[in-house]
Amino acid sequence: MSEGIHEKVLEMNEESRVPTEPIRATAHTSLSIAASYLLVLTDLIIFVFSFVLAFALIHETFGPGDIHWFAGFNFNPPASTGQSFIWKGMPTPMWNDFYPYVTGILIPLPIIRFLVMSRLQLYRIRGEISLLEDAIETFRGVTIGSILLIVVAFSLGGGRGETQLLTSRRVFPVDWMICMAGCIGSRALFRTAQKGARRAGHNLAPVILVGRGKQAEMIHDEIRNNPVLGYRIVHVVDADGGDPDLEKHLATLPGLIAETGAQEVFFASSKITQKELFPVVMNSGWDVQFKAVPDLLGLRPKKVDITRLSNVPLLEIFVDPLRGANGAMKRVLDLTVALSALVLLAIPMLVIAIWIKIDSKGPAIFKQTRMGLDFRPFPFFKFRSMRTDVDHKRHEEFMKQVIQFGEGKVDEQTGKKIFKEADDPRITRIGKFIRKYSIDELPQIFNVIRGEMSIVGPRPPVPYEVAMYREHHMPRLSVKPGITGVWQVSGRNSISFEEMVLLDIAYMENWSLLTDIKIILQTVPVVLFPRDTY
Description:
alpha/beta; two-stranded antiparallel sheet
């Protein structure tokens, strides 16, 4: 280990009264979770309070002074009211005007705003604190949430009359202003208290530092001299790209992460490649963040996020390129299509499952580990189309020839090397039918609902395929895998593996919501009138 770094870590640990032996940050994690819940609870109260107060402010007869916030509820109102409960805190005429908004707006309101704020990472506890950036992101979150709320209100308010809609128009700007002031103000107080806690040695995320030389020393000094950043180095790995024992050093990282409870790993090296990092990511907890100094890995710009550690620039690697507004839109589309498909296809799927059970021994649903976003394994569901007593080594060897050596079976019509076996002996009788019409893919609807897959995206590979990937294949795992994609509507099994990779990368770098919709629509005729499927 670099002596300068090692001595500084020991010195910092001594000053902070932190033992030099590896420790697990259980107390830190518990406090962080509690603080995060407190922030969420505060926001939920503000979301509801702001709308109720806004309604009281614009009411023509009564005002905020007529509200008694802790007056309680009556859950057995007279049947003539047509109401399921009455809040005693409002005068009866005012409550009668407000009640239609309870189920139509007040219930979805905190859910919508919470989901938006959560998507913008406004409930994060670790990392550098910036009151200005917090205020800007809070402004975005409250504004987007209010816009979505207006859409909900007007879609549900068509039968309530023009007067009701006019009231809605007046209440929403007032609600937006009150909510904005409350959320920004509460966050300012929370972050100020958080800074004080960090100066006292609390809320410091354990970090492993990998590297040596000036870059490592610069990161170390920033963490030591500025505890408000929220980090504490628990271990230093003396390694750099090009070292003969680099692989050995990196192999220790998953164990060190588990042993120390590290939540982030900083790479102060500019020579470590994706291929060298892959085993680390595969074997580490998925809540661990990996950050690096610029120029690391030669990653695509859309796959990294520029951040900083005080004055030290960092790149957060393995970042979802579809996060933020684009990711939210894609997720809404995914859930809409998946839930609609589940309603329409639930009975046919049950019939298929029974048919499979009758046709051959084994479960109707085949569960397999596949690799998703950022190399994360997940349980992948399909209708079983193969026998349960087969050896998958044959397929593994076949894919090895395709991925590593560019070999494979040649399609007789196109002359291209394809990566699917036309006469796979493992497939059952019903398996041939459901694979031909892609019926075996239907259980992946549940993967989409669970958030592990998207409707449109690259197909998820199995772990042994990823282990054989070459450098230019890695970007396929930059987004969530999909049930359908450009490959499926562009020739499916008649195109080569390398062409599939290029199509996937082109899709990711030119993504739009309209592209997803087009691919979904193009998938329908491809499934109904299949060609080159087996």
